[in-house]
Predict the structure.
Amino acid sequence: MNKSKLQQELKQNHPFDSAATEAVISIHRTADRIRARLNALLRSFQLTTQQYNVLRILRGAGETGLPTLEIRQRMIESNPGITRLLDRLVTKGLVHRQRCPTDRRQVLCWATPEALELLARLDQPVVEINRQMMAVLDEDQQQQLIQLLDLVRSTVGTV
Amino acid sequence: MNKSKLQQELKQNHPFDSAATEAVISIHRTADRIRARLNALLRSFQLTTQQYNVLRILRGAGETGLPTLEIRQRMIESNPGITRLLDRLVTKGLVHRQRCPTDRRQVLCWATPEALELLARLDQPVVEINRQMMAVLDEDQQQQLIQLLDLVRSTVGTV
DNA sequence: GATCAATAGTTGACTAATCAAGTATTGAAT
DNA sequence: ATTCAATACTTGATTAGTCAACTATTGATC
């Protein structure tokens, strides 16, 4: 009886009940390993993956800035604690906040020049890590993976 | 210019620098959505995904139990706070702990009968959720996804 | 049998995430 | 003009995660 690779990794003796379950666990496990790798890099810059994600979103938004909850929506991983995450980035001098003049409910956020500098130093290493981690897959396989995951996400929300 | 689905989800205006980067972000985003779905179910049982994962591992280990750090190794997502995670499960009456008689450094852990009952009630719903979330993919595509992720994990550790 | 590195886990201090309940502002409908 | 629901956060209380330093035990070497 051949054990799947994932089964071996988790030292499980029972096979998965279905390919669906194995796929789900596989996605989690892979995401965790990838996150750990990025974390190792960001750690030397005193950033968490969430903080890094926010800064990249703000860089993308440019001069106009973004309201708090819009940032939350654009984040890769959902984050109910966005206000305090931004608090910490403000404390670090990486984010600037100001109440929106036209809609005073909103608080607009921008990446500071310091943040942009930090991001610039991270760009190449991050691209390189991603490239290395995906280097086992050829271009076709990478596209396949992206498409399969697109499909999965298209239904998860509706289930 | 066609934006990728992921780009649309994240409301990004710039294309990804490479398929590798899109694949990496895609994995994170998908894992997050799937975790949210499982969370919604576990929440009504007052369990976190990590706690649920530990209980399943202990159920799999059966009568012989498992030492603390062995549990950590088998977890889907790495967890440095395993001791306190177990503390909470002990408080809830779901885990029983005892120092190992043959190697007094180790602490063996077991799922309690209450935990086994709880897990039994969760089995069907969890299988069903996984099935539903992966139902957009046919059996071949599910196997493809599993294999692609296997490949990715096989290198991530070595990068 | 004494020393010493390795293993297994715990603890303390700190940071971060979660949830529910709250405030301020806006826009729409009387 | 006034009420009322909706939006956009913010706050407090609680729980969980992280990191480094520590204790206890074991196994190996001299």
Summary: The helical segments of chain A are 5-9, 19-43, 49-61, 68-74, 82-91, 113-134, 139-156. The mean pLDDT of chain A is 91.
